[in-house]
Amino acid sequence: MFWSKNSTFPEKISFLILAVLTAFPVIDYLLRNKLAIPVVSSLWDDLLLLGGLVLVGLRLLIGDPRRKTRLTKPILALTLVGIAYLTLDFTTLSVNIEGFRAIFQFMYVFFLAFYLNDRPENTKTLLSIMVITGTLMALYGIYQYIVKVPMPGNWVDTSENLRTRVFSITTSSNALGSQMAMLIPITLGLLSQAKSWPKRLLWLGAAGAMGACLIFTSSRGAWLALAGAVVAIGIMYDRRILIAGAVVAVVAVVFVPSVRSRITYLFTIEYMFKSSQSGRISRWLDAYDQMRNNPLFGSGLGHYGGAVANRKFGVAYTDNYYLKTLAETGLLGLTLFLWLIYKTLREGYDAMKNLPSPGLKFLAMGMFGGLVAIVLHNTVENIFEIPYLNTYFWLVAGLLAALPYNASVMGGSSDD
Predict the structure, then answer these.
(1) pLDDT surpasses 50 at 217
(2) Rounded-to-10 torsion of CA 275, 279, 285, 288
(3) In degrees, to the nearest 5, what angle opens at C-alpha 27 toward C-alphas 316 and 36?
(4) Mean pLDDT over all residues of the chain?
(5) Residue 190 to residues 18, 130, 193, 310, 319: CA-CA distances in angstroms?
(6) What is d(CA 302, CA 300) in angstroms, rounded to the nearest whole number?
């Protein structure tokens, strides 16, 4: 383990940095809403990332990482283009900088996870912390459902009859749903690694709690993202997963009224009309029209469809991160970003294929499924606008890409 006598001080610090990131939503909630420590509450994640990057730099300069990643070029290329975007309009430089930070900062978490962890057992420990954090948030979400916590009226269409949509300690049911959709496959990966019944029951219970919480978020995008992740894993790894996923989906639609009503409402004329007038479809078309004003470079970082534009200019969220990227950075920026996402998924898939241990393959499969869920959910939400989910995505991507290197160092197996 990381705290063994063989672990060096830098290894211990590296693990602690990654461990804090795995508990990001709870730590951020406590610091911002309960403790409110000046400076620290608002900058703790920036300082943690900076410290981690310093350790990565030292390792690359004076250490022997013995590993390479294909994501270095896409991330650096996208960052350089982003820096160039800062110079397009100096009259809104502060907005440009905020937009730049929102897009590019969290990508560098990948390098922390890829370079600062050398042990497969530590990977499982880090994922366990992430899952336990998600389980606690899920249990609180279930409690909110039981007590019928109040929710904003615009979270549900007036024609729908839902008692509540849970959000736990987040500010969005869709954010919580996306977290659950990402962590459920990872939890099942940890379940496949467990060799004792207490551990199996622990992970099974965690998956069940997060599954119930996912249903109670009433986030159709998160439901469909998880379904898409199951389909992707089934096609690439084992067709039996498709059958199991289909059975669960059918049971949910048939026997859970809220799931059935939310899914079937998508196919009604009423939904299509309202969506095209003032809903997602309308916002998607507006984002496309915004891009047409400047097809190559877009409207500028932080200027349309995201958190910065909403705060600075009152522009509504696009509810599609890729169209938001298209509107702000044009065809050039979107192409580079999609290239990075493709490279990330390809790196994860190749890592999964190259693992020598069957147990680690199942764990990697769960991690890959979590990444796919986030990528898919971004087609109907601005999930990468949420700091902790953006961090989780790049953290899991880095841990997954590093698994083959770690497994080879440990002699090819890390099964419990």
Answers:
(1) yes
(2) -150
(3) 80
(4) 89
(5) 18, 11, 5, 39, 32
(6) 6
pLDDT tens, position by position, 380-395: 999 999 999 999 999 9
Q: What are the angstrom distances between the C-alpha of 340 and each of 85, 155, 345, 370, 397?
A: 18, 32, 9, 17, 12
Torsional sign, CA 203, 208, 209, 213 = positive
Q: How far apart are CA 112 and CA 53, in angstroms?
A: 7
The DSSP line for 348-375 is: HHHHHHT-S-HHHHHHHHHHHHHHHHHH
Single-letter amino acid, residue 185: P
Rg (alpha carbons) of the chain, rounded to whole number: 21
Q: pLDDT (tens digit, 9 = 90+) per residue, 239-286?
A: 888 888 888 888 888 888 888 888 888 888 988 888 888 889 999 999
CA atoms within 13 A on the CB side of 145: 20
Residue 414's SS3 state is coil
DSSP 280-333: HHHHHHHHHHHHHTSTTT-S-TTSSSSHHHHHHH-PPP-S-HHHHHHHHHHHHH
The span from the CA of 295 to the CA of 293, in Å, is: 6
Q: Angle at the Cα of 344 (from 338 to 347), degrees rounded to 5?
A: 140
**What number of other Cβ atoms are within 10 A of residue 266's Cβ?**
11
Of 395, 322, 400, 289, give the one whose Cα is nearest residue 355: 400
φ, ψ of residue 170 in degrees (nearest 5): -90, 180
Query: pLDDT tens for residues 161-194?
Result: 677 899 999 989 999 999 999 999 999 999 988 8
The pTM of this model reads: 0.93
Return the percentage of the chain with pLDDT > 90, whole number: 63
